[in-house]
């Protein structure tokens, strides 16, 4: 029966595993005194290996490479004595590597050779390191909560077949690759909570496969690599909470396939890159809390946007003047944090909102007194309207809100709240036809609201 086993979990080392010739998955867990993995543990049929909470483990076995031609997935978690994973000990068949909560891990891929003690790193050794990277089939690399990690690879060469790279909460990580290059095969790049990270790469070279970039909570990151505009496969870019980020390359973003661009809380970012208006494939644009951006280009934003979110920018007044009505495909508009606006949209400029809108959110407009009747008159598709934190707002558009409106949310607008009381308020007749109305979290048709509850 043993020879038919497909999966086994170990909490104490067992002998005779080599006889389990059909074993596919092996989990070694809570072996507190295990320092090395005995070569006898591994058999050629093993495809998944998980090592968890083995606090004394300092090295993987040489047999992991030579006896495991089928190993495709390796997961290591909570092995706090492990300082590196020697590349020479990883089987070339490995496609997925996940490392989490290894407190002493200094670098992930240790591509040092026996001659490391020498102060000179010969070109032959460097070429051998590159060849090792080229021979790897690793496609998925996930690293999380390794507070001592400073670099992914000692020599700086990442596996050349890597497609998915994700790094979370590595507080001492300063660079991804000292070689300055990312694998050309990379599709997905995600980095979060790495406060010491200074560089992603020297530049994007031939990373035509890269589709997704998400970078967040990297407080020392000052710039994005050059060559961004050449990434014609790029679909989405998210850059959040990078307070030291000063600039994005002037050459800008690729204009072929980029659909989503989201930038939030980049406090020192001085400007948006050139040619923003030429991003013809862009559908969603989100710019929030980037106060150092003080102007936009005369051409404005790409007119094919379907969703636009703007919050707490110093270009709000300029953006309103440019004109939301030019965004003829826009369905969702989220506009927050403009301290200038007395009306929305600007009535003195005769501004209109795009008739394509189905959702509209306005919030944190401290001087806003009324919503422009002219600006709302053609919103025949509007279904959702949210108005938040507008303390001086007293009235809704005349003669009433669009008949298409299905949901109205009003929050922290005290003057408007009093005027929207059921059957009593001056604005009630404008909202009585709307199926769902909530004011400060209460359903407006609830009788309790009439009593001021």
From TrEMBL:
<protein>
    <submittedName>
        <fullName>Uncharacterized protein</fullName>
    </submittedName>
</protein>
<dbReference type="InterPro" id="IPR032675">
    <property type="entry name" value="LRR_dom_sf"/>
</dbReference>
<dbReference type="GO" id="GO:0006952">
    <property type="term" value="P:defense response"/>
</dbReference>
<keyword id="KW-0611">Plant defense</keyword>
